[in-house]
Amino acid sequence: MSTPYNMAFACLDCHSSFKRELKLAPCDYPKQLTCPNCGGVAHNYGRHFKAPKKSDKKQWEKVKFLHEHGFRFHKIRIGSGHHDVVPYPETLEQAKEFVVKYKKYAVQT
Ligand SMILES: [Zn+2]
User: Fold this and answer.
1) CA 99/CA 92 separation, integer angstroms
2) Which residue, of 11, 29, 35, 83, has the fewest CB within 10 Å?
3) Residue 92 Cα, ligand 1 centroid: separation in angstroms?
C-alpha cells in the first residue's frame, strides 16, 4: 500500500503549475511530465513546492535559477536525526547565496 501524494509540477517555459496525485512508490515518481498548457516539460518539484503567480517573473526567475543549479524543492536536511530543514530562498538574490552554500545538496542532472 502506498499513500497517494499530491506532487506539484511546474513548467519553466509558460510558468504554469499543476498538481498530480500519484499512486506510486516514491522511486517511481516521474521527474517530469508534459506541460498541459504548452506541451513543454513540466518538472516535478515535490509536495512542498508553492508555485509563484504566473505574472511574478522575478519569482519564476528564482525557480529557474534554483532548478538549473540542481535544487528541485526537495527538503534539505542538515545533519541527521533531527528536523533542521533548510528553508528555500525568498528572492533571486538569496538564491544566489543559497546555491553556493548548499551546493553539496544539489542533485546531479
Ligand atoms: Zn508549459
Assistant:
1) 11
2) 83
3) 21
